[in-house]
């Protein structure tokens, strides 16, 4: 739990930078999800950077599609995708329009609204596991494709927004290979996390999925 975080919204200019600058700078920021049942706030502790058409691991590597259209839009918007036929994952778009870079939100600490998050994450053994991993984070915050394209920098009423929070001291930021990314994209050390934070997810190398016989 953090004390008295700064609740000033992050401006769009924060996201209009290279993704490798934005990603580590997101650690310690607050992600607020407003739901019909009340707000949930999460302190970001782990993220991954994806550098668009320069990055074989990115959904935008082969260009614009209906699925990744939001990544080519204005910075500060939310890109939500569906994976493995069962999970949603949430990203924040970075850089100038048409550049298509984004930061995957991998893990965080629920600092407000834990009682709501628990109702969506019944399998979590404790509150540290509520948003420990990108699919768990999206589930805890009730994020799905209906929020794809949400402007997290918008003023007024919005279902998702990013606040200044309490940025992590650079000496406490660690980086390493991205989790579960295969091929050329798997070698980039573009996963960033807060050192020794118990909400950070464990690293897992890519394991090819076997076809069912």
UniProtKB/TrEMBL annotation:
Q: What is this protein called?
A: Putative 3-methyladenine DNA glycosylase
- Keyword set, alphabetical order: DNA damage, DNA repair, Glycosidase, Hydrolase
Q: What class of enzyme is it?
A: hydrolase
Q: Where is this region: Disordered?
A: 165-188
Q: In the record, what terms sit under GO molecular function?
A: hydrolase activity, acting on glycosyl bonds
From the record, give the transmembrane residue ranges: none
For this protein, what is the EC number? 3.2.2.-
Q: Please state which protein family the record places this protein in.
A: Belongs to the DNA glycosylase MPG family.
The answer to whether UniProt assigns keyword Transmembrane to this entry is no
């Amino acid at each position: 739990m953090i004390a008295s975080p700064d609740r000033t919204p992050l401006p769009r200019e924060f996201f209009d930078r290279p993704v490798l600058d934005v990603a580590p700078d997101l650690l310690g920021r607050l992600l607020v999800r407003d739901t019909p049942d009340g707000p949930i706030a999460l302190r970001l502790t782990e993220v991954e950077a994806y550098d668009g058409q320069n990055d074989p691991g990115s959904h935008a590597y082969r260009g614009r599609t209906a699925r990744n259209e939001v990544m080519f839009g204005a910075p500060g918007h939310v890109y939500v995708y569906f994976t493995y036929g069962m999970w949603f994952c949430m990203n924040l778009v970075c850089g100038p329009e048409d550049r298509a870079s984004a930061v995957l939100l991998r893990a965080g600490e629920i600092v407000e609204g834990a009682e709501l998050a628990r109702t969506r994450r019944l399998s979590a053994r404790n509150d540290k596991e509520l948003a420990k991993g990108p699919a768990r984070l999206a589930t805890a915050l009730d994020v799905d494709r209906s929020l794809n394209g949400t402007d997290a920098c918008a003023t007024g009423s919005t279902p998702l927004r990013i606040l200044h929070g309490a940025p992590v001291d650079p000496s406490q930021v660690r980086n390493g290979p991205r989790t579960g990314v295969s091929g050329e994209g798997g070698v980039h050390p573009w996963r960033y996390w807060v050192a020794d934070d118990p909400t950070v997810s464990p690293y897992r190398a890519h394991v090819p999925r076997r076809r069912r016989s």
